[in-house]
Amino acid sequence: MKIIESLKARRSYYEIQKELPVPIETVTKMIEELTELVPDAFNMKSSRVIVVHGKKQDTLWDEIEKAFDGKVATEKINSFKSGAGTILYFYDRTVIETKQKQFPLYADNFPVWANHASAMLQLSIWSGLRELGIGASLQHYNPVIDDSVKTLLNLPKEYILIAQMPFGGIVSEPNKKEKEEIDKRVSVISE
Fold first, then answer.
1. Distance between CA atoms of 114 and 125, rounded to whole angstroms?
2. Which of 48, 62, 69, 184 has the most neighbouring CB atoms within 10 Å?
3. How far apart, in Å, are the Cα atoms of 61 and each of 3, 16, 79, 89, 187?
4. pTM of the model
5. pLDDT of residue 159
6. Which element (helix H / strand E) includes 91?
């Protein structure tokens, strides 16, 4: 699939199911490959990706719901819980701090660049999932869930949670996207 076609196919899928069109091992292999391929500033390799699936998928979303103490609709949480898994995106603060000490002139930029790298990785994995026939959406329940997730998964405190991507078999297609007036967002300047 060409990159443009892959990006066109990538959408936010909220109606997902536990059954996948490919084995979970195929999904994790794709995630590993993309994590290695996506670039980041100073080759710092700060991104950390945790793939949660199986029974732990249900437990994760139960913990997320508990962390919000009823402030997020159960139906919404259940739509994510109904998926086959969730990809959690982090960056490792120790990597950032090491780079800040090595390159003090750029110290303030390293957390920003870590987020840039994570964003590229998120989009790459999201598109890769769609190429495998899997639907996903990107969620941002952090920082409310940070401590719960780290405790549940026994993760280091230095991991900074950025986003959550529930994924699963596609139950239904989302509504067609409206074509936007792109000239409001893209300008071309030349002499």
1. 16
2. 48
3. 32, 14, 10, 15, 42
4. 0.95
5. 98
6. strand 85-92
Structure tokens at 184: 């409001």
Q: Which residues pair with 85 in a beta bridge?
A: 53, 167
Query: Alpha-carbon distance 7 to 20, whole Å?
Result: 20
Structure tokens at 128: 């890769």
Distances (CA, A) of 43 to 35, 88, 90: 12, 21, 16
Integer distance in angstroms from the first to the last C-alpha of the chain? Answer: 36
Range list of β-strands (E), the chain: 16-17, 47-53, 85-92, 134-136, 159-170
Q: What angle do helix axes 109-131 and 24-37 make, rounded to 10 degrees? A: 140
DSSP-assigned letter for residue 59: H
Q: What residue has token string 């919000």?
A: 68
Q: Are 72 and 4 in contact (CB under 8 A)?
A: no
Give residue 3's pLDDT.
87
Would you state the pLDDT for residue 2?
A: 84
Could you report the per-residue pLDDT of 120-157, keeping only the tens digit for each? 999 999 999 999 999 999 999 999 999 999 999 999 99
* CB half-sphere exposure, 2, CA atoms < 13 A: 3
Dihedrals φ, ψ of 187, to 5°?
-120, 145
**91 CB neighbour count, 10 Å cutoff:** 26
pLDDT digits (tens, 9 = 90+) for 70-102: 899 999 999 999 999 999 999 999 999 999 999
Q: Which residues pair with 168 in a beta bridge?
A: 135
